[in-house]
Amino acid sequence: MAFQNNSSQEVMSEINVTPLVDVMLVLLVVFIVTAPLLTQAIKVTLPKTVSTSPANPNPPQTVHITAEGSVSLDATPLNDHDLAQSLSQQASSHADFELRLHADQHVPYGRVAEVMAIAQHAGVSKLSFITVQQ
After folding, report:
1. Is residue 28 part of a domain?
2. Phi and psi for 50 in degrees, rounded to 5?
3. What is the model's pTM?
4. For each successive 10 residues of the chain (134 residues), what is the average pLDDT?
């Protein structure tokens, strides 16, 4: 809808910005008033201590599966039976035992699944996969 002036027949195309400025100023005042309320916190002086790193008495062990399908536990070659016994002993003696699985990219998934099943039957509950970033 166009507004017309009686003196000339031109269309009025100016925007009245006064209401827009009024609304923006009101919003600015609201933000200025509420901003200090959002950062209000209880002041506490924390004690100073010496930083320590958490001790990990049982570092995670790594199972390596080569491209041919042979398995080694921390660079010690083992067959499936010996791997199961070793993992079972370590999982029963340490409650937070963690095992890492590092498999060659050419190993069939079936072989990886077999090693994962051996670890599961041995009682390993924390298993992670190691990959190489490119």
Report:
1. no
2. -90, 130
3. 0.56
4. 59 81 94 79 76 72 89 89 91 85 89 92 88 67
